[in-house]
Amino acid sequence: MPDWILSRSAPATIGVVIYDRFSNLCLANAVEPLRAANDLLGREAYVWHVLTPDGQSVVSSSGLPVAPSGALGAAPGGDMLLVMPSYGHLALASTSARLRTAAARYRVLCGLDSGSWLLAAAGLLDGRAATIHFELFDAFAERFPAVVARRERWVDDGDRLSSGGAATTYELMLHVIGQAHGTALTTEIAALFLQGEPPAPGARAGRLVTRALAAMEAHVETPLSIAEIAAKAGCRQRELEARFAHALGTSPRTAYARVRLGAARRLLRDGALPVAEVAVRCGYSDASAFARAVRREFGAPPRALR
Q: What is the rounded distance in angstroms from the CA atom of residue 142 to the CA atom of residue 138?
């Protein structure tokens, strides 16, 4: 396991530094997957703090004011620092020294949207691979020749991560969560938001994965065959398998099992139904097979999850 990966057992502490005219969508796509992971795991796996350079409120590009937890310079540090300037990044060169000082207190640095520009300006991406918003890519590559600029949706270069925009921030955060907690959890999160994780190239691929996950969620108690899921997604089974392999790194069958087991975990934690009834509601006619599947997926028997 690469040493940058966030802890699976102890809560991971994440700083999110935002600047005036930041993107609401980028911020939501950064923290909502973390919130969903906490909810689905039933514990505080991630703790995040919204910061600003001086501890003062900032206003998003759409006019939403946000009051931070504190100033970047006063933050004690932690596992990961997300840098999110969005519009106006060129005017923030004066913050480089402050960012370098703060970066020394975090294990992993992550530039979101135009965040790679600030990290590069602070010398924190020299010799490392990174991406940035497509509108800034050419200027970024020319301005920072010491950075290995990659025209990709997101880039994982060890303890330096980057995404090219608000939508790809969601994909990157699922990657971060998946590295620590596996694709079982990220499949659940993707199903929760009815999104593929991350979408394969092209709009059609993303829609197929999204529709397939929605069909799986809608048919938990009486599971469909994978061929039927593919038909509801609007493609043949072979194409669906290829899309899932690319987007989720797993097969539709495995993803479907994880969706059903995710539903089972929620029902078990609710505590209103006996274990046998939960098994039936999640498509298992054999209670023993259900118990084995739960133990294999979550490392504990059904009764331990109640």
A: 6
pLDDT at 239 over 90: yes
What token pair was written down for 305?
A: 């999850």
Q: Please check whether residue 147 is in contact with residue 130, taking contact to mean a CB–CB distance below 8 angstroms.
A: yes
The answer to whether the predicted template modeling score (pTM) of the entire model surpasses 0.85 is: no
Give the pLDDT confidence of 141-158 residue by residue, as tens digits.
Answer: 999 999 999 999 999 999
CATH code 3.40.50.880 for 12-180: yes
CB neighbourhood size of 203 (10 A): 8
End-to-end CA distance of the chain: 31
Q: Could you tell me which residues are beta bridge partners of residue 13?
A: 47
Cα dihedral sign, 194-46-250-301: negative
Res. 138: pLDDT tops 90: yes
Domain 182-306: assigned CATH number:
1.10.10.60
